[in-house]
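stuck on this one:
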Amino acid sequence: MALGPGCRAVRGCRPVLKRAFSLHKAHSVKDMESILQLVRSVVPALTTKKHKGQDGRIGVVGGCREYTGAPYFAAISALKVGADLSHVFCTQEAAPVIKAYSPELIVHPVLDSPEAVRDVEQWLPRLHALVVGPGLGRDDALLENVKGILEASKARGIPVVIDADGLWLIAQQPALIQGYRKAVLTPNHVEFGRLSEAVHGAGCCRLQAAESLRVRQLTLAPRGSSTHAALPPWIRPA
């Protein structure tokens, strides 16, 4: 029986996935099949019955003069795994650089505008999720705008992934997302240390901090083996 292009593509991924996972530890064929099944379930199937936008509209909040790569990679990665539209809300100086990376991205040069919160908020009803923090930087005015954007996103119940300097903002103001069950934090080892200190003070036990974050109904998706080792089993990636 002839294989369709989708099936051939999945089979073609197997050597790549096997090599990637072999860099860490040996995985059985059963493990690989589970990974492939996960990929199949996540990537939307192509069909003529859908219109553009039905398979995901993502917003990335970040990007300033110094940092343009991170928001680009976050936005383009969403497209590569099946989302239809990726928006980047960045500063005016970052916009032409990010736009030059790819014509596929919708770039809004509004993040350093006095009306940034209003400008982004008008797009929120059209988005399925936000990624906050890649390439954001730590300028006080930008962080204040992002704070307003997070508040507006919470009010609409939009899922939010917070990374990079977005986590810096949360470490300064943990109450900003406390109790918001649609927020996912993705700290590395250093970022998790800041979150730990923000929750329990300097010198706190990281297991205690992780449990406290769980009680606050926050989801952690930590990055890096040293971060995983410091966390209890219920919070580590499988």
Remarks:
- Residues 22 and 188 are 22 Å apart (CA to CA).
